[in-house]
Design goal:
The chain is 54% helix and 18% strand. By secondary structure, it is an alpha+beta fold. Among the domains are: 138 residues; 163 residues, Heat Shock Protein 90. β8 and β9 form a beta hairpin. α10 runs antiparallel to α13.
C-alpha cells in the first residue's frame, strides 16, 4: 500500500532522529555509569587508605555519596573477603577492586589496599578493606534515562510533524503542476506548467514543459502531414475516377480507351511515387532509419539509384553520367538512401528533359557528397529554401509539370540529416539546378578508386 512522500520522509526522518538520540543516550548512559563507578572506587580507596593510615589526613571529594562505606582491617580467614582476592592483593602489592556478593546476599564493591606495618619484631603486611553497595544502572543512569526518554520522544514527535509540514510545503509546486497538467490534457494546446518551487521541482517541471513542447510540435507536424497527404492522395484518385467515368459513359474507339489507360497509368505512377515518399517519410519520422544500417560504398549507392531511374531518364531523353572521385564507405540505410538519390535523379529528368544529367561522388571534409547537375531552367535563389517544405513546389515547376509531388527534396534532406549530413541547392555549371546531398563518411581506408565513368 503506497503512502504519501511527505509521510515517508517524516517517518524516515523521525526514525533517523530516534536512532541518533538512542546512540547519544546510550553513550551518555555509559559515561554516567562509568563516572559513578569511578567515583565509588575513589571513595572506597580513600576510606581504605584512611583506615590503613589513621595518622594521615585524607581529603577526597566523592561524587557518589548515596552508598554507605565500611572500612576495616582484614584478618586471616575474614568471612567477608574471599581468600583468593586477599592473596592476589598481597602478591600484587597494589589496590584490588572487585565486585562480590556478601553474606547478606548484597552485591558489593570492594577494594583491598595492601600496606606495611612496622612492629618491634620487624615489618609485616596488612590489608585495609573498604566496601559499599555496588553501583547499578538504575542508580547511575535511571533518572537520566527517564528524563532523556521523555525529551527524545517529544523531540521525535515534533520533528515528524515539522518534517511532514515542510515536505508538504515543498511539494506544493508539484500539486500545482499536477493540476495544471490535468488542465493541459483537458484544454488542449498552449498551456504549460508553472516553473516554481525548489530546484529539483523546477527541473522536473521544466523537463515536463519541454516534453509538452515536443509533443505539441510532433502533433502539429503529424496533423499537417496527414492533411497534406490526404489532399495529395485525393488528387490522383479523383483524376483517375473522372477519366474512367468519362471513358465508360459511352462506347469509344480502342485508341480513346488506350489514351485513357495511358493517362490513368501516369496517375497510378504518380500515386505510387507518392505512397513511396510518404512511407519513407513515415519511417524517418518513426526513427526506423536507425535500424538496418550497414556499411555501404558510395559508388554502389549511386549506381543503384541510376539503374532504378534508368527507364525514367531514358523516357525523358536525358543522358545520365556518373563521375566518381572518391569511393568512400558510409554507415547508412540502403533503401532510404537509394530512394533519396532516386528522387534527385527523377527531379532532374522531370525538369530538364532532353538534357544532360551528371551525378558526381566526391569526398569533402569527412563527408561523401552526391552532386546531381542538370541542364534545366534551374530554380531562383529566393525559392530554393521553401522547396524543402513538404508538398511545396516552385511556381515554374507547377506550371511546367503537374506530376511532381513536392516530396523529393524534403525526403532527401531528412535522409541526409539522419545520416549526419544535409541537402543543399545551388546553380549548376550545366545551366540548371545543382543538388548536393552529403552524408557522414566512415574513416578513410586504403581503397582503390575506379576512375571509369559510367553512362546510362
Amino acid at each position: 500500500m503506497s503512502s504519501s512522500v511527505a509521510r515517508q520522509v517524516a517517518v524516515s526522518g523521525a526514525a533517523i532522529l530516534i536512532g541518533a538520540l538512542v546512540v547519544v543516550g546510550v553513550g551518555t548512559g555509559v559515561v554516567l555509569h562509568t563516572r559513578a563507578v569511578g567515583a565509588l572506587d575513589q571513595a572506597l580507596l580513600a576510606a581504605a587508605l584512611g583506615h590503613a593510615h589513621p595518622e594521615v589526613e585524607v581529603a577526597v571529594q566523592v561524587e557518589h555519596t548515596r552508598s554507605p562505606i565500611e572500612a576495616w582491617l582484614a584478618r586471616p580467614e575474614d568471612p567477608r573477603v574471599p581468600g583468593e582476592a586477599m592473596r592476589r592483593a598481597l602478591s600484587g602489592e597494589r589496590p584490588l577492586f572487585f565486585d562480590h556478593r556478601g553474606p547478606d546476599d548484597r552485591d558489593q564493591r570492594i577494594v583491598l589496599l595492601p600496606f606495611e606495618v612496622e612492629r618491634p619484631d620487624g615489618e609485616s603486611h596488612g590489608l585495609a578493606v573498604a566496601a559499599a553497595p555496588r553501583v547499578t544502572l538504575g542508580d547511575s543512569v535511571g533518572p537520566f534515562a527517564l528524563v532523556y526518554s521523555a525529551i527524545a520522544a517529544l523531540a521525535a514527535v515534533v520533528a515528524m510533524l515539522l518534517q511532514g509540514r515542510s515536505v508538504r510545503r515543498a511539494f506544493r509546486p508539484l500539486d500545482r503542476a499536477r493540476d495544471e497538467a490535468a488542465a493541459v490534457l483537458g484544454h488542449g494546446q498552449g498551456a504549460r506548467l508553472t516553473e516554481a518551487g525548489p530546484v529539483e521541482v523546477r527541473a522536473l517541471v521544466a523537463a515536463m514543459n519541454a516534453l509538452l513542447d515536443r509533443l505539441q510540435a510532433s502533433h502539429e507536424t503529424q496533423a499537417r502531414f496527414t492533411a497534406e497527404a490526404a489532399h495529395e492522395l485525393r488528387t490522383p484518385v479523383t483524376t483517375m475516377l473522372g477519366e474512367l467515368d468519362v471513358a465508360l459513359r459511352v462506347p469509344r474507339e480502342a485508341a480513346e480507351y488506350r489514351s485513357t489507360l495511358e493517362s490513368t497509368r501516369e496517375e497510378v505512377t504518380r500515386l505510387r511515387h507518392l505512397v513511396e515518399g510518404l512511407t519513407a517519410l513515415a519511417r524517418i519520422d518513426a526513427g526506423q532509419i536507425d535500424h538496418g544500417r550497414e556499411r555501404l560504398r558510395a559508388t554502389e549507392l549511386a549506381v543503384g539509384a541510376l539503374r532504378q531511374e534508368e527507364r525514367g531518364l531514358a523516357l525523358a531523353g536525358c543522358r545520365a553520367r556518373l563521375e566518381v572521385d572518391d569511393d568512400s564507405e558510409i554507415d547508412g540505410h540502403r533503401a532510404l538512401l537509394e530512394v533519396a538519390l532516386s528522387n534527385l535523379l527523377r527531379n532532374a529528368a522531370r525538369h530538364a528533359p532532353g538534357g544532360e544529367v551528371v551525378m558526381r561522388v566526391v569526398r569533402q571534409e569527412g563527408q561523401v557528397s552526391f552532386i546531381v547537375d542538370d541542364a534545366g531552367p534551374g530554380v531562383p535563389e529566393a525559392e530554393r529554401a521553401v522547396l524543402f517544405d513538404r508538398f511545396t513546389r516552385g511556381h515554374d515547376a507547377r506550371r511546367r509539370d503537374r506530376s511532381g509531388l513536392g516530396l523529393g527534396l524534403p525526403l532527401a534532406r531528412e535522409v541526409a540529416r539522419r545520416h549526419g549530413g544535409d541537402c543543399a541547392l545551388g546553380a549548376s555549371p550545366l545551366g540548371g539546378l545543382r543538388v548536393t546531398l552529403s552524408i557522414r563518411a566512415l574513416p578513410r581506408a586504403e581503397v582503390e578508386i575506379d576512375d571509369t565513368l559510367g553512362e546510362v
